[in-house]
Amino acid sequence: MSINIETDDGVVEVYLSGEIDHHSAGELRERIDEAIGAVTPQRVILDFRGVTFMDSSGIGLVMGRYKLLEGTGAVLELRGLSSPVKRVMRLAGLDRIAVMDGGTKK
């Protein structure tokens, strides 16, 4: 798993690649939370374009970042979702807490 984080003008963009599983999720959480804490963003974008595998730890990663941002007014956006990952995220209800692939929250 690798991660690249860019911050610019109130936006934190997180580019994920590789596998998201229980082994990698802890480090991902720490690095993303550190970037969010340093910037106090208006928008956080998690880009899954490079993700090749994701288990339930990926759902937990998204939910935890939502809880971190809750009450701040920041928007959580999920981009680059493959069809299977998007389906799993919708089944988990993440489309109600995050903007998915340029759409809107339900």
Automatic annotation (TrEMBL):
Q: Which InterPro entries match?
A: Anti-sigma_ant, STAS_dom, STAS_dom_sf
Gene Ontology MF terms in the entry: anti-sigma factor antagonist activity
State the coiled-coil residue ranges: none
Boundaries of every STAS domain copy: 1-106
Which PROSITE patterns does this UniProt record tie to the protein?
A: STAS
Annotated NCBIfam families: ant_ant_sig
Q: Tell me its family.
A: Belongs to the anti-sigma-factor antagonist family.
The record's listing under Pfam families reads: STAS
Q: What is this protein called?
A: Anti-sigma factor antagonist
